[in-house]
Design a protein that fits this description.
heterodimer; A: 711 residues; alpha/beta; seven-stranded mixed sheet; two-stranded antiparallel ribbon; 30 helices; 12 strands; 8% strand; elongated; disordered N terminus; B: alpha+beta; five-stranded antiparallel sheet; 2 helices
């Protein structure tokens, strides 16, 4: 039973900390497998929740606050942290806050502790990574830390679960007696700032639903407003409060002649600077492990070679290692589909089950190997500290291209598949930079386009055709990859000059000490990513697969001429997709395409490689693999236009490949874009700008080629 | 002297940050306050960004931003 006076509601405890403070490791050590990631609508920062059992207070809901150096919010993403701590916008105000401090950089971490304490929240300071601090020869004076800040302090090694039980006990005590973790501000605002804080504090109740209303909490919120809100900021605040805040800022600057940073940031650091020399003592020469590793990993020659090696391994994993697993998943679902087809009587229900649902679920699960591989590498790179070094190495190069330093790994993954690549853009902290990367990413030639290129090249550039010592087809394929990479970078540049105007936010990151990644956190991240993909993107993919199946199968056109393949071709022609294909023929005719290619383009929306099997049905050769290999090429080669000329000329092939290179024909990419941007607007923008661009490029290739005398 | 001009391996004391206001707040919250001691650890192979050490933290920032940070070499 909870102690008397306490309500029976579940208590909420927030876990805050600087990036790289081991906050997530501690969160995972406390909550284990109960952690779940949720997403705020429209905001890209995920919010993690977990449960913790305490002896006296029972079940506690733990909230993982996004890592940050301060509570000031300059972007909607950063606002999540303050919302979780102050209880704004539908989030409960926490009953206590665990502030995680990195023992190896205690001084810098104390800034956030001071800021959280200002909000009059009961706080426990957790000094994490004591083992690393010992290796560095650092001795931390815990008694001074406790007496100076006046809050409970616990030392832990979250990775090894050391000190976790003590932390739980302290948290239990704090929840019983919250006043043990609450202290007045440790610094005194100047009279002018104090005046504005008091005036604003009187207005903030409408904005914050304080359960434990106190003047100190109101003043902390007023201070947060004054420091965070400026004219252009997108932070969501009620208009009256917004105007009052901006007026207060203007008064402080113009009437009082004050500099806000010096009024708010400097006094906090003064508190810390007074303590720091006594708080941390360096007992011996520090280990220079990180410096030595950095000497190698950021070396112009060795660092570049190691970087290329690491990227090759990731590339290899996404392309080669995940292939057997993907093949096994596809095989399993093909087997299941075969079994269902053989078991159930033919009819609509069976077709829906086989071609709609089983194909849809299989089409969703097939992405998992690549997603898991990519995030395994990303968590290893981030957890070890290497990720920020790659940004250090590449920033200048990437910025020239209009991209963020962290865009490299997502872009590289894009060669395998845009879906994990787009999910990987989470490592880009700035929303604009992230959107530029997401919007440009589908232009990279992913592995699903390869079967399409291969089919077209085999058809229009037969192996016998050579240019110098090379097969012409090989050169064309190389050209396509080079062109698509060029187009990707060009479109990133174009987007940052137009719809996503702005410069990549200059690199300002911490290069954390090298550490062993925490295996438990890696596993939980992988589980979270997989669950996130399956729940949102997976649902959309499944629905669209069923819709596409319906388009390709309705209205039912049952004929029986004794030739099932010809019947299938007739049925396809009469389906909605067939009619759509015929309907869009005028639009794609200037590109050199006919209605059959039109159906193929519609069908390939399920997945680009489906183009090949749809063409198989359209050409009446069936859609099983052997038939596709043997007969489709022949059937296509004999196809003629109305005027008797061959349809599949090298020019048609080039035009179609140009279309595939650019067009947004992948619902999975759209689904994951919807999930990661939280916006249908950007998702539709992606669909239309890429498909429009594809039409234009294809038009230029085809009509340009004709002007040059090709047919 | 500004931070981008300081040679690798040298120590300096921060005098003032003259960058845009938003960047200045960000830098100050990371611990780059007037009077703090810092050292330039290395320059990236492509010549930008630079890596500094301040308050036991390695921070990487680009030269354009570093040019707004006035320092006194120690």
């Amino acid at each position: 039973m909870p102690p008397s006076g306490a309500s029976t509601r579940t208590l909420t405890v927030a876990v805050a900390g600087n990036p790289n403070s081991g906050k997530t490791t501690l969160f995972n050590a406390l909550t284990g497998a109960t952690a779940r990631t949720g997403n705020h609508p429209g905001i890209t920062v995920a919010e993690r929740h977990g449960r913790l059992e305490l002896e006296r207070n029972g079940r506690v809901d733990l909230v993982d606050v996004p890592g940050s150096y301060s509570l000031n919010a300059r972007s909607p993403d950063e606002e999540v942290a303050i919302n979780a701590l102050l209880g704004r916008r539908g989030m409960p105000r926490p009953d206590a806050v665990i502030v995680v401090l990195d023992a190896t950089a205690l001084e810098r971490n104390l800034y956030l502790l001071l800021q959280v304490m200002e909000a009059d929240l009961p706080v426990i300071a957790v000094v994490n990574m004591l083992d690393a601090a010992r290796d560095d020869g650092l001795d931390i004076n815990f008694d001074l830390l406790r007496s100076a800040f006046g809050v409970p302090v616990v030392g832990v090694v979250a990775r090894r679960k050391q000190g976790i039980e003590l932390l739980k006990k302290e948290l239990d005590d704090l929840l019983d007696r919250p006043d043990r973790g609450r202290r007045p501000w440790l610094w005194t605002p100047s009279p002018a700032l104090s005046r504005e804080l008091d005036a604003l504090a009187a207005l903030v109740d409408e904005e914050v639903r304080f359960e434990l209303a106190s003047d100190q909490a109101r003043r902390a919120f007023a201070l947060w407003l004054i420091s965070s809100l400026h004219r252009r900021s997108e932070i969501a605040v009620r208009p009256r409060l917004r105007e009052a805040t901006l007026a207060a800022r203007d008064r402080l600057r113009d009437q009082d002649g004050l500099d806000l940073d010096h009024e708010t940031i400097v006094p906090r650091w003064r508190v810390i600077d007074d303590l720091a020399p006594r708080l941390v003592r360096r007992e011996e020469r520090p280990s220079h492990r990180t410096e030595r590793i950095d000497g190698l990993l950021t070396h112009p020659l060795w660092g570049s070679l190691i970087f290329l090696g690491v990227m090759t391994v990731i590339f290899q994993a996404l392309f080669a290692w995940s292939e057997p697993v993907m093949g096994a998943i596809e095989g399993m679902f093909a087997g299941l589909a075969g079994w269902v087809s053989a078991t159930l009587p033919p009819g609509l229900g069976r077709d829906l089950l086989v071609d709609g649902i089983i194909a849809g679920v299989g089409g969703v699960l097939v992405f998992l190997p690549q997603i898991l591989f990519l995030f395994l590498f990303i968590t290893l790179l981030e957890g070890s500290g290497y990720m920020s070094r790659t940004a250090f190495l590449l920033d200048r190069f990437m910025r020239r291209l209009g991209l963020h330093g962290n865009a490299f790994v997502p872009m590289l993954s894009g060669f395998a598949c845009a879906v994990p690549g787009i999910m990987a853009t989470r490592t880009i902290d700035d929303r604009r930079d992230r959107l530029v990367t997401i919007m440009a990413l589908p232009l990279i030639s992913c592995s699903a386009r390869l079967p399409v290129y291969t089919m077209i090249i085999a058809l229009v550039f037969p192996p016998a055709l050579t240019t110098g010592p090379f097969r012409t087809g090989t050169l064309v394929l190389l050209g396509i990859y080079l062109a698509s990479t060029g187009l990707t970078l060009a479109s990133a540049g174009l987007l940052s000059r137009t719809v996503l105007k702005g410069r990549p936010r200059p690199l300002l990151i911490e290069l954390p000490p090298y550490r062993m990644p925490d295996p438990r956190s890696i596993l939980l991240t992988l589980r979270d990513r997989a669950a996130a993909f399956l729940s949102t993107a997976g649902t959309i993919i499944l629905v669209i697969t069923v819709v596409l199946w319906a388009l390709l199968s309705f209205p039912r056109h049952v004929v029986d001429t004794g030739d099932p393949q010809a019947d299938a071709a007739t049925a396809l022609r009469h389906s909605y997709a067939g009619r759509l294909g015929a309907m869009i023929e005028p639009a794609i005719e200037p590109l050199g395409f006919d209605w059959k290619i039109g159906i193929g383009l519609i069908g390939s929306f399920a997945a680009r490689e489906v183009f090949v099997s749809t063409m198989g049905v359209a050409y009446g050769v069936g859609d099983d693999e052997a038939a596709l290999d043997a007969d489709l090429g022949q059937a296509m080669a004999q196809d003629r236009r109305a005027d008797g000329t061959r349809l599949w000329t090298p020019l048609t092939g080039l035009s179609l490949m140009a279309f595939f290179m650019v067009a947004m024909q992948c619902m999975s990419t759209l689904a994951v874009t919807r999930r990661e941007t939280g916006s249908w607007g950007w998702t539709l923008f992606m669909l239309f700008y890429l498909t429009g661009g594809a039409w234009l490029l294809s038009f230029l290739v085809y009509q340009g080629g004709r002007l040059l005398g090709y047919s | 002297m500004t931070l981008d001009q300081i040679q690798k391996g040298h120590d300096a004391e921060l005098v003032a940050i003259e960058s845009g206001l938003e960047l200045r707040s960000r830098l100050m919250e990371m611990g780059l306050t007037p009077g703090v001691r810092l050292s330039v650890v290395r320059v990236a192979p492509l010549g930008d960004p630079i890596q500094i050490m301040v308050r036991s933290t390695r921070i990487s920032l680009c030269k354009r931003d570093a040019a707004g940070i006035r320092c006194r070499v120690l």
